[in-house]
Amino acid sequence: MTKAADIMHPGAQWIPATENLERAAQLMRDLDVGALPISDSQERLCGILTDRDIVVGCVAQGRDPSRMTAGDLAKGTPRWISSDADVSEVLREMEDHRIRRLPVIDKNKRLVGMISEADLARHLSEQQIGEFVEKVYAT
Questions:
Q1: Would the pLDDT of 139 be above 80?
Q2: For the chain, how many structural domains are there in total?
Q3: Residues in domain CBS (predicted)?
Q4: Domain limits for position 65
């Protein structure tokens, strides 16, 4: 049985909710990622920040990324999956919530990785990928 830990990209890194968006963009560049999980002061998941969030929610509105924080853009209930969850649970979570990136949390509630569409493409069958795309991108 394939688990979330088997397909995730390990070594994901939090960005504190208090960190400014300028630093978030630099961290995304340095890590070569398009999204960062946002942590609260107790290192609990409180959102996910994407490069698109920074552009649309800050830059395109003429706001200063050095004055806005990751927490300013954290909205809704963040979704995550346990590292020992079956891949079918991963797909269900991503499909049901129409999300493209999913943080992976271990038994100690610590961030251990992220699952993206690219990770799915590397590990799933063409049929599984087709069904995922149909459900997540359906209008």
A1: no
A2: 1
A3: 8-66, 68-131
A4: 4-137
The token pair at 103 is: 């943080």
| H-only helix segments in 8-86 | 21-31, 51-57, 70-73
Neighbours of 48 (CB within 10 A): 25
CATH of the domain at 43: 3.10.580.10
Query: What does the alpha-carbon distance between residue 52 and residue 100 come to, in Å, rounded to a whole number?
Result: 13
> pLDDT band at residue 80, thresholds of 50, 70 and 90?
very high
Q: What is the pLDDT of residues 87-136, one digit of tens each?
A: 999 999 999 999 989 999 999 888 999 999 999 999 888 888 888 888 88
- Residue identified by tokens 């599984």 is 128
37: Cα within 13 Å, side-chain hemisphere:
27
Question: pTM of the entire structure?
Answer: 0.85
Alpha helices in the chain (DSSP H): 4-7, 21-31, 51-57, 70-73, 87-96, 117-123, 126-137
